[in-house]
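Why should sequence recovery work at all? Because a backbone constrains its sequence more than one might expect. Tight turns favour small or flexible residues, buried strands favour hydrophobic ones, and helices have their own preferences. The token representation captures these environments compactly. In the example below, the structure is given first.
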């Protein structure tokens, strides 16, 4: 565990030059660090503001200063924001230095703080870790911070912000409090069992247990879904050889990322590209064409390659949120989509059907395809591409909003919540059967402990390391 008595510092603004750069300081010695940093010639009023005016004076302060950061850079204008007490982000004295956003200035200022003012360079996620340990945020909110940092779509950012503001922890804490109160009633009955006093009737006990168990089970299922989808939604392009999948990928990506050829079977390995689709960042994967079994092959080695390509494509299909089935509109009888689309065993993704090469089709043919459930598109002219992007974004957003948690929280917590649900089911069975109250209380205690692991009421050093090591320095 890191030494929390250190005063730490790090660059908090994004890498690269900008109008403003931010350097963050936190720790019990933050006030003294700032006093050593300020030049008395140019910052006498600021030093007065920094001086201790009262033990309970925790008001935040902001003032313009001139800093001497060494390294031959001379005096640097800056604005300091100072939080003297526990109302800061980290729950301890903290400050931010806003100055010119040039990399050399920020780097030299950080070195000056380290060597001349006695601060330690912060580790990854240490500011947020201190906020958690001070009780300013819980673990799910800390992971919400990470979700905000890593968000690459508007929807992902919205989910992370909701989690950061207590969208998960608040209902979980209410549920945990209810279970603690229920446990208190059960154990009170155990204490007075000889006096034959009933603190809780059996019907109320069963009802409260069932409600809690269902709530935990539903949250576990949502997190299980979010844990499978991963960080970016995946869209897979499937279809027969020469169906226009690679051309469609290049069109969606806005550049040539896949080889396009009239020769069938050009694509063997999956080709993936991150594509911005209507403001939503997606991972779109082009896969090998699904070849018919009766297709004659040149050699046994070619057949082995074909089988491996199909195996890879099938594995990706199982993990994709959306499958876009591509069919050559000039070659295939597409009157009934269900007669043409090959089913994939175990595939959970939603299916969109597109008829490619629509620029070679008559308007009447295109209309009949739309009526039959196909979307005509042309990678050459761009026809139908905007509508396809809209459908992809709408489908993916619908999948993401049902999850409601950032991916790292889902991965960490789904097993814990399933365990808590199992504990509550065991307690519910004891209540239904009129079993031993001691066993029921033990099951309740285990469920309460597991819910505490989700929000961080119960944690280990290993759990904290696994979470905060993923942060960038300065957060």
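From this structural description, the recovered sequence reads:
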């Amino acid at each position: 565990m890191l030494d929390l008595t250190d005063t730490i510092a790090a660059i908090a603004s994004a890498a690269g030059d900008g109008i403003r750069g931010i350097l963050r300081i936190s720790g019990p010695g933050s006030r003294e660090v700032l006093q050593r940093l300020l030049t008395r010639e140019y910052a006498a009023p600021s030093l007065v503001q920094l001086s201790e005016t009262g033990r309970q004076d925790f008001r935040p302060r902001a003032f313009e200063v001139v800093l001497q950061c060494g390294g031959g850079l001379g005096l640097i204008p800056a604005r300091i924001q100072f939080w003297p007490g526990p109302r800061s982000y980290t729950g301890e004295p903290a400050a931010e230095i806003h100055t010119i956003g040039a990399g050399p200035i920020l780097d030299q200022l950080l070195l000056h703080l380290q060597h001349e003012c006695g601060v330690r360079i912060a580790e990854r996620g240490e500011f947020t870790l201190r906020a958690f340990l001070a009780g300013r945020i819980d673990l799910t909110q800390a992971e919400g911070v990470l979700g905000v940092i890593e968000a690459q779509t508007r929807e992902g950012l919205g989910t992370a912000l909701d989690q950061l503001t207590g969208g998960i922890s608040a209902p979980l804490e209410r549920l945990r409090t209810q279970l603690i109160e229920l446990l208190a009633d059960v154990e009170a009955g155990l204490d007075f069992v000889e006096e034959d006093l009933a603190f809780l009737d059996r019907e109320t006990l069963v009802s409260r247990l069932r409600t809690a168990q269902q709530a935990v089970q539903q949250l576990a299922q949502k997190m299980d879904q979010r844990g499978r989808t991963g960080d970016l939604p995946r869209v897979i392009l499937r279809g027969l050889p020469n169906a226009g999948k690679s051309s469609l990928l290049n069109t969606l990506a806005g550049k040539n990322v896949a080889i396009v050829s009239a020769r069938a079977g050009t694509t063997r390995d999956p080709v993936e590209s991150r594509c911005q689709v209507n403001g939503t960042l997606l991972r779109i994967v082009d896969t090998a064409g699904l070849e018919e079994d009766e297709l004659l092959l040149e050699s046994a080695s070619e057949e082995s390659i074909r089988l491996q390509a199909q195996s890879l494509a099938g594995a990706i299909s199982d993990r994709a949120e959306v499958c876009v089935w591509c069919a050559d509109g000039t070659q295939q009888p597409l009157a009934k989509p269900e007669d043409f689309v090959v089913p994939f065993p175990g595939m959970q993704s939603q299916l969109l059907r597109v008829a490619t090469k629509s620029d070679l089709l008559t308007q009447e043919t295109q209309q009949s395809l739309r009526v039959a459930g196909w979307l005509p598109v042309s990678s050459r002219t761009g026809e139908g591409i905007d509508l396809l992007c809209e459908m992809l974004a709408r489908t993916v957003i619908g999948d993401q909003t049902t999850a409601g948690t950032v991916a790292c929280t889902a991965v960490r917590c789904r097993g814990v919540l399933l365990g808590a649900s199992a504990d509550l089911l065991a307690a519910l069975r004891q209540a239904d059967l009129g079993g031993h109250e001691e066993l029921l209380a033990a099951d309740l205690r285990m469920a309460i402990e597991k819910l505490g692991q989700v929000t961080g009421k119960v944690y280990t050093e290993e759990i904290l390391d696994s979470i905060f090591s993923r942060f960038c320095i300065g957060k």
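A few observations help interpret the result. The chain has three domains: 8-137, 148-228+405-468, 234-401.
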